[in-house]
Amino acid sequence: MACQHQTSISRLALERAKKVMPGGNTRSSVYEAPFPLYLKSGNGAHVVDVDGNAYLDFQNNFTALIHGYDHPGVNSALMAQIRRGLSFANPTESEIDLAEILCHRVPFFEQVRFTNTGSEAVMMAIKAARAITRRPKIAKCEGAYHGNYDYVEVSLDPVPADWQTGAAKGKAYNDGTPASVLAEVVVIPFNDVVATERVLERHKKTLACVVVDPLPSRVGLVPVDLSYLRFLREFTARHGILLISDEVLSFRLSYRGAISTYGVEPDLCTFGKIVGGGLPIGAVAGRAETMRVFDPSRGKPPVSQSGTFTANPLSMVAGAAAMRALSEVEIERLNALGAQARSQLSAALAASAVGGHVTGAGSLFCVFIGDRDVKDYASAYHAWQQRQRLSQFIALCRDEGILLSRIGLGALSTPMATAEIATLTVRFGRALAKLADTTSAAVA
Ligand SMILES: Cc1ncc(COP(=O)(O)O)c(C=O)c1O
To answer: How many structural domains comprise the chain?
Structure first.
């Protein structure tokens, strides 16, 4: 099928967008040159662009749409709620339903607080940690993405020259980041116990929390080592520091989330994406004793949370329907498909002249072009030329009717089965062959 789709309507849409949005864009992570595909609709595992081309979608809105598109359970819950009302200035029972579902799934989730995004969930967890410990600093792994709160953006994209040497000095991501923000962030190297301990030891008296993602997408989508997690848990408990597991992306790894599979209990867990059934959401959860920091029933709580659309019933009912449809058996089926995808794509890369590596876990995978062993931020880092090549490959996959995210990340959805993985493998192989051709043509 598909080769070099006709995409003139997407191109025109960008021209229109450029007049009213800077760069024609309102989410930097989806910016694409010369123009992005504008999508019109989705059904099951497929999406259709404004020019009428169909794609097998492994983006699933940055992993959020675990049921793909047009899921009947999510849709009917939403339609019923639309008729009842979109949002209110009072709580609705829909938020209790979703909170109960989540607390029932995860043993250490005794209480939940909802937010509108994963970024906001991370921000609320950090505020909670600061209020509980009365300390200002946070520690995060170099290169790890935790959303757009100023503090967690620190050292999101250090270049090789900035790589940590144990100095734990944060690097600003956005221009204008105050020095005071940088001063409150301690940067640790992912999965490196010795270097991390050296850094944390120096800051232990001023640290409120350590934030860790068990499967950090920008750190190569490499799973956290059990020994690293155990070290973080032990060190933080010993020094009165909170451990926050950021599972906005990785909650899908098991029925009980990501960190539960390691048998390690954090103080707080942040999540979002799949638990909103495709609508905006975020959440913070933990033991009641910790979550008490948000409790307004005895006067102004240590951390007061607001938000016009927090726990809005549309997100709540869509999330509840999505979670009910995501049984333990279904997650295991999806994870087995993920393992199949990783192994077949790895084999295709190994057999090709291009070479490469596939990382990931559960129903997530990430493709790296060129020979490299990806194990941390430094080894996952794309220099400019490597980034160009990855973009070229992702565009070739798109021409074959496969959508991957710009960093090479793929997320499976429940409408997928072995047939979709077989389709992915065949088209991925064709895109690789084209990439190899362009490379040899450039060399010749
Ligand atoms: C680990 C992690 N934390 C936080 C966020 C931010 O979530 P949101 O985009 O909903 O603000 C993301 C988003 O990709 C994420 O992957």
So the answer is: 2
